[in-house]
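Look over this record as teaching material.
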Amino acid sequence: MAGSYRAVVFDLGGVVLGSPLEAIARYERELGIPPGLVNRVVAETGADGAWARLERGELTLVEFAPAFEAECRAAGHAVRALEMMARMAEAAAPRPVMLAALRALRERGYALAALTNDWEGDGGGGAARDALRALFDAFVASSVVGLRKPDPRIYAFVCGKLGVRPSEAVFLDDIGRNLKAAREFGMATIKVADPVHAVAELERTLGLEAGALRAGAAAATGSAA
C-alpha cells in the first residue's frame, strides 16, 4: 500500500519525545516496587481509574495524585504520584531523529498530527510538546477532547481533523493496546521501541528511499523550539 498514505500520526511521549514508560520504570526501581506495577494499576483500574480520568481532563493533577496513590496502595505498594510525574517530565526531551522525520514528511506534503494522552498542567512534558505544535497540522490532546487512546473515537477524531480516511494514515505509538485499536480502526501502525528503527520502518511503509526521513537528524538536535 506504499504510496496510498496521505497522513502520519505521531504519539508524543515515547515517540517524538523521550519515553515516560522508561521514566516510570526507573522510578519503580528506585522505590523497590515490582516492575510494571504502575502500568498494571492503570490497566486494572481501566476507564474509571484515576489515570484515565486525568487523561480525559476529568481530574486535575492535584486531584489525581491522592486518587492514584490510593489505587497503588490497594495494589500493595506506595508511590508518590507528583514525584513520579516530575520524573516523566524530565524524560520528555525531543528526539532528533523524530524531529528530522517530521520536517522531511512536511516537505513531502504529508499531513501530520500529534495524538497524545495528556493532562492539564501536564507533568509529562507539556512545555516540550508546546514547542512542537508548529510541526503538526493537527494537535489532538486527550485532556482537551475528553477522549483517550485506545478509544476508537479518538482515532476517528484525528483522521477527521486531517481530512483523511483511516486507510490513508500511518500511526506511530509505543504502547501495544493503542496500536491494536488503531489497526482495528483501519490505520497502518508502527510500534516505536527504538526511534531510529521506527523511522526506518516508516520510510519502508511510505515507500520512501532508505534514509529519506533521517538525513537531518543531527541538525535537528536541540531545535524543537
User: Anything to note?
Assistant: Residues 117 and 151 are 11 Å apart (CA to CA). The chain has two domains: 7-19+92-220, 20-90. The mean pLDDT is 91.
